[in-house]
């Protein structure tokens, strides 16, 4: 088993535009397995958000760099870069890896079976995209848990 890390965000305004909520890029010296993605919205009315997972070839911008935290308190610093809320989207490659409709009144929890986990090779990247513009802006929170190995 490799080293586990997490990163999270809170109180981020969704606005009413499509954006990359989470971007993760492995360093050249490691591979990454995504174990968990979670999102929640502070909302009183139901809206169906479209969440899509994509592989990327170039990073987006306009968001904020995450603080990558080792799950093991004595663990080494992460070699993987995570960003949140990129308004200039990353350059996507290939087809949608996953597409999921999410009702914003309940948390979005992605805990894939072991054989369904997203795996990124060295220097590989992916985004979790808010793929349909929200009708009304809401405050979002979320995070990602991943494993580095290699």
Briefly say what this structure is.
With 150 residues, this protein is mostly beta strands. It is built from no helices and twelve strands. It has a single domain (3-149), classed as Sandwich (Jelly Rolls).
Task: Describe this protein's structure.
This protein is globular. By secondary structure, the chain is mainly β. It has a single domain, classed as Jelly Rolls, CATH 2.60.120. 0% of the residues lie in helices and 58% in strands. The protein contains no helices and twelve strands.
Q: Tell me the radius of gyration.
A: 15 Å
Rounded to the nearest angstrom, the distance between the terminal CA atoms is 10 Å
Query: What's the shape?
Result: globular
Give unreliable regions as ranges: none
Number of DSSP strands? 12
The major sheet is characterized as: 6 strands, antiparallel
Q: Could you tell me the mean pLDDT?
A: 95
What structural class should be given to the helix and strand makeup? mainly beta
Give the topology.
Blueprint: E1 3-13, E2 19-25, E3 31-42, E4 48-58, E5 64-65, E6 69-70, E7 81-86, E8 91-103, E9 108-110, E10 118-120, E11 125-130, E12 139-149
């Amino acid at each position: 088993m490799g080293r586990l890390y997490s990163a999270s965000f809170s109180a981020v305004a969704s606005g009413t535009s499509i954006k990359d909520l989470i971007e993760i890029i492995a360093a050249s010296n490691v591979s990454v397995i995504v174990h968990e993605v979670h999102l929640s919205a502070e909302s009183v009315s139901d809206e169906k958000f479209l969440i899509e997972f994509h592989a990327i070839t170039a990073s987006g911008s306009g968001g904020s760099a995450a603080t990558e935290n080792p799950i093991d308190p004595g663990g080494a610093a992460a070699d993987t870069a995570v960003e949140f809320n990129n308004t200039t989207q990353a350059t996507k490659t290939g087809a949608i890896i996953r597409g999921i409709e999410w009702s914003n009144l309940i948390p979005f929890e992605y805990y894939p079976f072991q054989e369904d986990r997203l795996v990124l090779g060295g220097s590989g990247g992916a985004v979790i995209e808010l793929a349909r513009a929200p009708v009304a802006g809401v405050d979002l929170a979320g995070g990602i848990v991943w494993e580095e190995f290699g």
